[in-house]
UniProtKB/TrEMBL annotation:
Gene: atpg
Protein species of origin: Ptilothamnion sphaericum
Family the UniProt entry places it in: Belongs to the ATPase B chain family.
Residue intervals passing through the bilayer: 26-46
The name this protein goes by in its record: ATP synthase CF0 subunit II
Subcellular location(s) of the protein: Cell membrane; Membrane
Upper classification of the organism: Eukaryota, Rhodophyta, Florideophyceae, Rhodymeniophycidae, Ceramiales
């Protein structure tokens, strides 16, 4: 490369009489120099930068793919947990409804038992009152008979 620059400088010194558009050996040398510079820059700068950019693009694509897969998994888990929560709520409502039915059945049974006991007590009280009424009537009849007999004896003895 150094030899090439030296050769170009010697050629330009020997042929310095031309103007702006002289077509001599400097034009192909400049083209050759441009190609060498392009190849050198391509190898030194463009290729590593291109590789880094390609790696970065691949990393971004992989990250996006991983993120979308994680998002899908999170959505699936969220849906699964929501379904489980809804099922748990339904089961809890069913348990509550069954407990309410059982408690209503127990309460209605207790009410029926209490009503039956009250009816039995009322029937016993009614029987006892009837019995006491009959005894009172018998006692009154006996007293009425005694009083009637006393009245008759007093009326007849007079």
């Amino acid at each position: 490369m150094h030899n090439l620059l030296l050769l170009v400088s010697q050629l330009s010194d020997t042929e310095s009489k031309g103007g702006l558009f002289d077509f001599n050996a400097t034009l192909p040398l400049m083209a050759l120099q441009f190609l060498v510079l392009t190849i050198t820059l391509n190898g030194i700068f463009y290729k590593p930068v291109s590789d880094i950019l390609d790696e970065r693009d691949e990393y971004i694509r992989n990250s996006l793919t991983t993120a979308s897969a994680s998002l899908l998994k999170a959505n699936e888990l969220t849906q699964e947990y929501e379904n489980q929560l809804a099922e748990s709520r339904r089961q809890a409502q069913l348990i509550i409804k069954n407990a309410q039915k059982e408690s209503q059945a127990i309460v209605s049974n207790k009410i029926q038992e209490t009503q039956q006991e009250a009816e039995i007590l009322l029937a016993d009280a009614y029987k006892q009152l009837n019995f006491q009424k009959e005894q009172a009537l018998k006692s009154l009849e006996a007293q009425v008979d005694i009083l009637s007999e006393q009245i008759r004896i007093k009326l007849l003895n007079i």
